[in-house]
TrEMBL record:
Cofactor: FAD
Pfam families: Fer2 (PF00111)
Membrane spanning stretches: none
2Fe-2S ferredoxin-type domain segment(s): 228-313
GO molecular function, one term: 2 iron, 2 sulfur cluster binding
Domain of life, source organism: Bacteria
Domain FAD-binding FR-type stretches: 1-98
Species of provenance: Parafrankia soli
UniProt keyword terms in alphabetical order: 2Fe-2S, Flavoprotein, Iron, Iron-sulfur, Metal-binding, Oxidoreductase
Name listed for the protein in its UniProt record: Ferredoxin
Amino acid sequence: MTVRARRHVAEDVVCFDLADPTGAALPPWTPGAHVDVTVRPGTVRQYSLCGDPADRHHWRIAVLREAAGRGGSVHLHDRVGVSALLPVGQPRNAFPLVAAPRYLLVAGGIGVTPLLPMIDELAARGAEWRLLYGGRHRAAMAFADDLARHGDRVVLHPQDTHGLLPLGPVLDGLRASGEHEETAVYCCGPEGLLGAIEGHCAQWPASALHVERFHPAEPAHRDTDGAFELRLARSGRVLRVGPGQSVLEVLEAAGAAVTSSCRDGTCGTCETPVVEGGVDHRDTVLTPAERDGGRTMMVCVSRGLGGRLVLDI
């Protein structure tokens, strides 16, 4: 795709508008979706689509410059300008907007991006919603001026002047009133925020909380990881996954066709059906109910529990 426009939308945040170089219509997407962007050869990053799903000719992403990161965001900020070409994958949505009587949206920093199209859809529906949006300081909070049009539905909470987001009073208040039974909570931001909101919502209905993480919540490998047998149901092949190896690495070495992207359990690209065997889930995509069901796994990070794991490959 080609970069049609770029602009600074906050301190250290650049927004890129992407389009097909030929002007062709782009694939549809829904609020909460993200895409893989090949920032440079060998470097793929996932970014939430934060524009208008009805606009079939432009996709919008916003990128926070992370000087201490792995270099992808710095490259986009410093080296990618208007008219540059970027390989971009198809939209995928592991953070879909569900139907609910009311919504509480919680954003930390650049985590506001997947919530923006959700807000537009909820506003168009006339749904009951509000947004708690925190950041280091006001100048670092992307799209804050755009969100002002929603009035008091949006609560901006810069940390330098207001402290941390008031999760306790808000969430505990919803529970005390009984409204938590009908409220869908969507949260995206740094791990500290996600851990805090998961703690506050621990006694809520399991389906109420929806989170999207930037980074994996669990280590890909542990000292206690043991070897296990991996059987491919379609071909009958039997492989061995050793300590320190991922299922994905073993599959790739054996020539099995598995699509993958992030390799840290956050994007959902490598989700694979499980035929038999227990799974040690280490991704941040599947819900608790989906993990308990054991029907699929993210082969980039999750492992087999017990001696044998059978996949539908």
